[in-house]
Design a protein that fits this description.
This protein is an alpha+beta fold. Helix content is 15%, strand content 26%. The strands form 9 sheets. Strands 1, 24, 25, 26 and 28 form a 5-stranded mixed sheet that branches. Strands 3-9-12-10 form a 4-stranded mixed sheet, covered by helices on one side. It has a 4-stranded mixed sheet with strand order 7-6-5-11, with no helix packed on it. Strand 5 and strand 6 form a beta hairpin. Helix 1 crosses helix 3 and helix 5 runs antiparallel to helix 6. The relative contact order is 0.15.
């Protein structure tokens, strides 16, 4: 007999800041594996629940005078790639005046407000077993860089070549031995993909990044003096350091000096509960150059120091989990056939996201969301046409449910 506990909750909205993963440049087919996608998106969602920065929407279209280009490192090849918002080379004003054709023509580039884009892919990296993250860079923009309403600032920051608020790219090593399990991090199954994905997205957000001017301004001669990261470290370790040592291996991104510092896992924003240390215990920092996995620590999480680093480079972060209130009118049914069925009262025009968990703390969204009709909606565990990251209840000893109103 499977033990099932149902938890119903209502929230005014899901976390506003969202890291959206885009796989269009996954030319090696690395993310054809649904487990790899699930884990990367879980790592992106973890950062999304920590950052609460508001970002203006982006709407860059084919223009008679500019035609914005976005430059990235192609995740599947490692080569530089330019994307133009023009519809084609024929309408590309930069190409027309001798600037050369772009590699890709997007026919417009749009991002909804509060969305940060992550292009993901993979390539062989000579057994590096890690990933390289580069921030998106907008060039030839039609508004000046110090205009907060420019698409390179999105109402958030200003300054030429400043912190990327459009997004980043990430490329994973196709030759590494990865463990793609969300729930069973174990060195015998390979390198924990979730931990490495967290680390690399952190670089994209500007942590320990050679591409972030804000980070470089706080770093000099192998020392980092950002106030909030230092405060977090000193609070967790009862110390009074005035700087943290950093290092750059082979001219790449900066990291905290390896095997020196520890901090507690950031407990807000629903950290992973699988393979990580208990609240109050000290973990090696996530943004060290080498993640020293072990039997007692097969998975790394975001620590208080990394969250302090986000604040140092300018991001706004949560100071409390979003409030949730009981929704007693949601009910559960157990037909004679043994299925679990949720009955959700709905309003016309609203949407409802079902979330499931195996521990009542780490929640994963079932997709797609349910659309409100004004009547009671019905959803059955394992229902065809829905993707539930943790799988059907029949294969679990315990399964939790909740419903979020969007």
């Amino acid at each position: 007999m499977h033990k099932l506990l149902t938890v119903m909750a209502l929230s005014s909205s899901l976390q506003a800041f969202t890291i959206r993963v885009d796989y269009r440049f996954d030319t090696q087919g690395f993310f054809d594996n649904p487990e790899a996608r699930l884990v990367l998106e879980a790592a992106a969602a973890r950062w999304s629940r920590i950052v609460n920065q508001e970002l203006q929407a982006v709407d860059a279209q084919d223009d008679d005078t500019t035609d914005v280009r976005i430059q990235i490192i192609h995740p599947g090849t490692g080569e530089r790639l330019q994307m133009s918002v023009a519809a084609s080379a024929e309408t590309d004003i930069i190409a027309e005046f001798g600037g050369g054709e772009a590699d890709v023509y997007l026919d417009g580039f749009t991002l909804e407000e509060d969305v940060w884009l992550l292009y993901a892919g993979a390539r062989a990296m000579d057994d590096v077993g890690a990933a390289a993250t580069i921030q998106l860079g907008a060039i030839n923009v039609s508004t000046v860089a110090d205009d907060p309403n420019s698409l390179v600032n999105r109402g958030f920051n200003s300054g030429a070549n400043s912190l990327s608020v459009l997004g980043g790219t990430v490329s994973f090593d196709t030759e590494a031995n990865w463990n793609f399990s969300l729930f069973s991090p174990d060195l015998r199954g390979g390198i924990d993909f979730y931990s490495v994905a967290l680390h690399e997205i952190g670089h994209g957000l500007g942590l320990s990044s050679r591409n972030s001017p804000e980070w470089r301004e706080l770093s000099s001669s192998g020392s980092y003096v950002g106030r909030f990261a230092l405060e977090a470290y000193n609070a967790d370790n009862a110390e009074s350091l005035s700087a943290l040592e950093i290092e750059s291996l082979d001219g790449g991104d900066f990291h905290w000096r390896d095997d020196i510092y520890q901090s507690e896992v950031f407990q807000l924003g629903a950290p992973s509960r699988f393979g990580v240390l208990a609240a109050g215990e000290l973990q090696d920092l996530l943004m060290e150059p080498i993640l020293s996995f072990g039997v007692e620590l097969p998975r790394f999480e975001v620590t208080n120091v990394e969250v302090g680093g986000l604040r140092d480079v300018g991001w706004s972060v949560i100071t409390a989990d979003p409030p949730q209130q009981p929704l007693p009118s949601v009910s559960i049914q157990r037909p004679d056939t043994g299925e679990v069925r949720l009955m959700v009262p709905s309003e016309l025009g609203r949407s409802y996201t079902i979330q499931t968990s195996v521990d009542g703390q780490s929640w994963f969204s079932v997709s797609p969301s349910l659309r409100g009709t004004g009547d009671t909606l019905s959803w059955e565990d394992g229902e065809e046409g829905f993707v539930d990251p943790i799988g059907p209840a029949s294969g679990l000893e315990v399964k939790f449910y909740r419903v979020i109103e969007n």
